[in-house]
Design brief:
With 210 residues, this protein is an alpha/beta fold. 50% of the residues lie in helices and 16% in strands. The chain is built from 11 helices and 9 strands. The chain has a 9-stranded parallel sheet with strand order 5-4-3-2-1-9-8-7-6. The model has no long low-confidence stretch (mean pLDDT 96). Keywords: Carbohydrate metabolism, Lyase.
């Protein structure tokens, strides 16, 4: 099981933050029905470990489940114990990367500058999350890929159906998606079909190669 290969093939990671355990059931069902293969719940979500465990039980064989906002080694340990199959962070913490590599767990740390990106990659991260993309913008991604074209970047923040093709064209190996996948009204009403339809549109967009 090489989740980096899965990431680079599917080119999408679904990110869920601040969601209830009940709403997470709807979200997980809709996203997996729509074809998402990598689902992440951030650890600053109340009950995140329970959601990870629930998703592992419900969606085994359909999607891989990971933990986001992993800020230190203790959080990484707890996430893995809860069933997280990959780890994502908003920052570069070399001790977290070292722990993940030792445990054989995929880690995609967040970085903004060339120095951070290279440090994360050299420490053992096979993919580096470029964050915050919504603020950095697509021109930044394009510019930073020129000298760092050997490092796969997971561009996270600001992507929607109107601009996701630009993310890939600028050099993103994959895109992290949050609220764009989960319409609030669909979550509130438990409408997993609407979430599946929304997800499917992004999955289809990710399949289009330049």
């Amino acid at each position: 099981m090489n989740l980096t290969e899965t990431l680079l093939e599917s080119r999408l990671v679904a990110i869920v933050r601040g969601i209830s355990r009940e709403a997470a059931v709807t979200a997980g069902q809709g996203m997996t029905e729509g074809g998402i293969r990598l689902m992440e719940v951030t650890l600053n979500t109340v009950g995140a470990h329970d959601i990870i465990a629930d998703w592992r039980e419900r969606h085994e064989g359909q999607a891989y489940v990971g933990a986001g906002t992993v800020l230190n080694v203790q959080m990484a340990r707890e996430a893995v114990a809860a069933g997280a199959q990959f780890l994502v962070s908003p920052n570069v913490d070399l001790s977290v990367i070292e722990y993940a590599v030792e445990q054989g767990v995929e880690i995609w740390p967040g970085a903004m500058t060339p120095t951070e990106i290279v440090a994360a990659y050299e420490a053992g991260a096979k993919v580096v999350k470029l964050f915050p993309m919504a603020s950095l913008g697509i021109p930044y991604l394009r510019e930073i890929k020129a000298p760092l074209n050997h490092i796969p970047l997971l561009a996270t923040g600001g992507a929607n159906l109107d601009n996701i093709a630009e993310y890939y064209a600028a050099g993103a190996a994959a895109v992290g998606l949050g609220s764009a996948l989960l319409p609030k009204d669909a979550l509130a009403s438990g409408n997993h079909e609407q979430i599946a339809a929304c997800t499917r549109a992004f999955v289809d967009a990710a399949r289009i190669k330049e």
